[in-house]
Amino acid sequence: MSYNFAVIGDPIDKSRSPSLFRKIWSNNPLNSTLNYSSINIDESQLEEFLATTDLDGFNVTAPLKEAIIPHLSRLTPIAKNIKAVNTVVKVNKLWNGHNTDGEGFWKMCKDHLPTPTKSSDICILGNGGAARAIVYILNSLGYRGLILCRRAKGNFDWPEVEFASIKELKASAVIQCTTLGMIPHIDSSPPLPIWLGENKPVAFDLIYEPAETKFLKEMEFQGCKTIGGSQMLIFQAKKTWEYWVDVLNIPQI
């Protein structure tokens, strides 16, 4: 028996997911039966894709994390709360949606953040699906902060504030959750305030390619410690595989 997986999105050609899963599976006795590909799909093609694909499960990347939800039969509690999906699996011919963004981020950042009781506000840049997942996990752990964005979307546990309204800010961490700076738009970055205080915030960028984005360079210039998104990607992939193994009952030899 073979198992077929993929990552979908638009564009998808730069995704590292296929190589990551091949690495995760390299020592798995079932390696020869595990297949992973990348498929370019836009929002208008989702319904037909779900009705015709022979995949057992797949990952979802930008810009489909929210758009795919109406086409799924069931959401896990975390995906329902976050209102974004990045991992999907077929169970009894029905598609179930999950989200590993928050868990992947927490594994990457937990050794670099102060405890909730000692932290000043955490600043999130952007209010898309990834930001929603990270706010959800950090809020559940007792952290507090705000979200800087172009315009408010609502239904966040933390307040949303427009970029233009804040020129200076004190924070313990800044988390860049937009696609600004991603290849091929490597010269773009969210507008940043001046970071106040003697202790500068630690800066995280969820983008993994390029390894050092314009945002990270700007934060480093302001004296901040910087961390790119490669580690988070690995943690997410491992969490996705745990979820697929559990739901599909894939034998672990």
In short:
With 253 residues, the chain is of the alpha/beta class.
Q: Give the radius of gyration.
A: 19 Å
What would CATH call the class of the largest domain?
Alpha Beta
What helical percentage do the residues reach? 25-40%
Q: How many domain regions? A: 2
**Biggest sheet overview:** 6 strands, mixed
Number of helices: 7
What is the name of the CATH topology of the largest domain?
Answer: Rossmann fold
As a percent range, the share of strand residues is 15-25%
Q: Low-confidence stretches at least 5 residues in length (pLDDT < 50)? A: none
N-end to C-end Cα span:
14 Å
State the strand order across the main sheet: 2-1-3-5-6-4
Class by helix and strand content?
Answer: alpha/beta
> SSE string, helix = H, strand = E?
EHEHEEHEEHEHEEEEEEHEH
Tell me the overall shape: globular
Helix-strand blueprint:
Blueprint: E1 3-9, H1 17-24, E2 34-40, H2 46-52, E3 57-60, E4 74-75, H3 77-82, E5 87-91, E6 94-98, H4 101-109, E7 122-125, H5 129-140, E8 145-149, E9 160-162, E10 168-169, E11 173-176, E12 194-195, E13 202-205, H6 214-221, E14 226-227, H7 230-248
Parallel strand pairs: 1-2, 1-3, 4-6, 7-8, 7-11, 8-9, 10-12, 11-13, 13-14
Antiparallel strand pairs: 3-5, 5-6
Helix pairs in contact: 1-7, 4-5, 4-7
